[in-house]
Inverse folding.
């Protein structure tokens, strides 16, 4: 039985063209980009070309792009390195990824107070439902949710935010699926991660406004203006730039394909495995993402059954996949208990065909109906 991969919000398969772009810098050009000899200068040029390409694709300036090891580091660097240390308020929500929420918990321990942003049942922050507190030091709101695909109203929230407040936006789930303009979003900082858009694992970027004062997390080098010391991986940076370029160049075609695949997949499940509850936007969210509940099933049992049937999916964030607790994202949306405990995350890819998603849907239907039968009859 061929496995069908429907967990692209956890990670995506790397494109052959991305590996081809990386290969020379992984094998043939060993130079350290900080070295002054010709081999080092070649590495430096490739690194800066990648930085310039990423900046162009995200409508930023090259000196606003800082390479990191991924979204976790980038989010930590932004949240811990940009905030005014004087105690004040931090606004965020339970919709955020753990690599945003955990640094914020550390800041709260240091004396900041936490303001919970209001969340709608559809998984979106409600700008009209909150008042900006005094001494708001930081607001952290993702561009799109990694579990439900809901897109957040960043422009409305930015318009409400005082000019001296840091606004951090985690765009790891959105990059490569949405057109992103760092300049037009007008946030202080923004995070991307290459392995979320068919690039290599182990590399991401933090975009930071030139005027922002960023304190480094690490000490011991002057790379990247001292903001992120350590020898950069040229091959990974080149791979991230190549993957982002492919994603942006094919954005419209991929979006059309993914919307059609998502609709067909959802219609099949609704017809053959009812009741099915959609925990997120029907339309208008990320085009590849679906969070579905199957009342009458337990998510952990269904996940195991689907794995045995050759369908790779998840119950939530991959970074929390070892947890048996229900999704904090869905809990914030106030979904009923039976819906909460039967929720599964499916995330598609433009590398999938209709045949792939049709076969995945058939396998899911069989697993769901079998589990419901066992629950109903005990057999």
């Amino acid at each position: 039985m061929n496995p069908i991969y429907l967990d692209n919000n956890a990670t995506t398969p790397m494109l052959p063209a991305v590996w081809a772009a990386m290969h020379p810098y992984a094998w043939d050009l060993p130079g350290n980009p900080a070295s002054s000899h010709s081999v080092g200068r070649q590495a430096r040029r490739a690194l800066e070309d990648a930085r310039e390409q990423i900046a162009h694709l995200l409508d930023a300036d090259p000196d606003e792009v800082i390479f990191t090891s991924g979204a976790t580091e980038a989010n930590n660097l932004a949240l811990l390195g940009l905030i005014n240390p004087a105690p004040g308020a931090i606004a965020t929500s339970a919709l955020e990824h753990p690599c945003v929420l955990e640094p914020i918990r550390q800041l709260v321990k240091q004396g900041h107070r936490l303001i919970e942003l209001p969340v709608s049942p559809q998984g979106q922050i409600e700008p009209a439902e909150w008042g900006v507190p005094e001494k708001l030091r930081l607001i952290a709101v993702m561009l799109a949710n990694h579990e439900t695909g809901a897109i957040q109203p960043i422009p409305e929230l930015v318009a409400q935010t005082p000019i001296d407040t840091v606004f951090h936006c985690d765009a790891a789930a959105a990059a490569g699926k949405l057109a992103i303009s760092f300049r037009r979003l007008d946030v202080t900082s923004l995070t991307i991660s290459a392995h979320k858009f068919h690039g290599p694992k182990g590399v991401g970027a933090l975009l930071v406004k030139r005027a922002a004062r960023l304190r480094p997390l690490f000490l011991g080098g002057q790379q990247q203006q001292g903001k992120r010391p350590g020898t950069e991986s040229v091959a990974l940076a080149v791979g991230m730039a190549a993957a982002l370029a492919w994603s942006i160049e094919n954005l419209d075609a991929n979006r059309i394909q993914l919307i059609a695949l998502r609709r067909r997949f959802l219609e099949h499940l609704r017809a053959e495995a009812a009741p099915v509850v959609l925990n997120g936007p029907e339309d208008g969210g990320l085009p590849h993402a679906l969070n579905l509940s199957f009342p009458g099933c337990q998510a952990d049992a269904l996940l195991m059954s689907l794995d045995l049937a050759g369908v790779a999916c998840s119950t939530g964030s991959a970074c929390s996949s070892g947890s048996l607790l229900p999704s904090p994202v869905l809990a914030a949306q106030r979904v009923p208990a039976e819906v909460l405990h039967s929720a599964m995350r499916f995330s598609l890819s433009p590398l999938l065909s209709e045949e792939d998603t049709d076969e995945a849907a058939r396998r899911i239907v069989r697993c769901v109906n079998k589990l419901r039968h066992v629950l109903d009859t005990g057999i």
About this structure: The mean pLDDT is 95.
